Protein: C2 domain-containing protein
Organism: Tegillarca granosa
Amino acid sequence: MKQIPFTVPTQGTSPRRLDRGSSEDFPSAGGLSEPSSPNVKRPSVEIPGAYALGSIDPSLYKIVDEDDDYEVPPDHIGRIWFAVEYERETEKLLVTLIKAKHLPVRQFGNNSSCDPFARIYLIPDERRYLQSKFKKKTCNPKFEESYVFQVSYRSLQDRVLKFTVFDVDRHKRHNVIGHALYPLKDHDGESNERLVMWRDLDREVAESGADKGELLVSLSYNNHLERLTVGIFEAKMMKSEGGTPGDFYVKICLLVQNKIVKSKKTDVVKKSECPNFNESFTFKLPVTQLDSASLSITAMQHSSGHKDKVVGRVILGSFMFARGKELDHWNEMVANQKEQITHWHPL
């Protein structure tokens, strides 16, 4: 492959493929130190299969140190550099947070009045995260830390990496500076190559892509029978790849502690952008597992002779797995035993 010199453009992103390193590229977690601030501690790693690896070998990423000067756009709140690599054989996503530059100062004219750290989320599970070390008095922190997420190849395209950078002020408050997203559908999961890239931080980010449609879902729980009933009634604004009405079905997976317990699916509804499924499914779920359970409801497009494609997904569950309206739906079900609780959910 022809080598292209690394230059930072004035806008956009600049991924670069680097040669795959040896096993020493990502050292063990033994070299990982705790953040300096008592109020900025690393969270206990609750994400199944996710953990911090520790410091990286900076020589692997010298390519990103040649960009110290770049044209700072108006209203710029910082830029971060990171690397992503997916190991297809082990289904491990290796994420390296390299550095950030030009983070805003709390006091104008004082370049050291920023104490940043970063959190890395794997959307849609934004309630849990991995956290970087805490850096003191710098607007240009070098993190050089690596992390691992366990992600199956089939779900890779539905996940999004989210980086959130914080500043810890003199009162130990965590103030959000900005966010950056990297949709993993943009990543070649089969190449086993490491991509180094940058993103400009935004104050607000749209965590979902284009509108993929909505599902009307009902939940009901009978604590005496320990039975969860899921109703899949209808969908609207379903988008097919060809732009014509497609053939759709819905797959429902019950997970306990992120492990699939049971999977079921609806019949295929053909050639409709607003398919009516009108099916319900029951799952055995003990009361003791309500707080560790979740539902992954996936809309699929069926293609004869080809692999079925994921249209979008909704995660309903307890506070450990869901947030927003999806969490509210689950909590409403738990609080209203034996009642059918129905809501629309965007994919």
User: Anything to note?
Assistant: The longest helix spans residues 324-335. The two ends are 38 Å apart (CA to CA). Residues 156 and 273 are 25 Å apart (CA to CA). DSSP finds one helix and 18 strands in the chain.
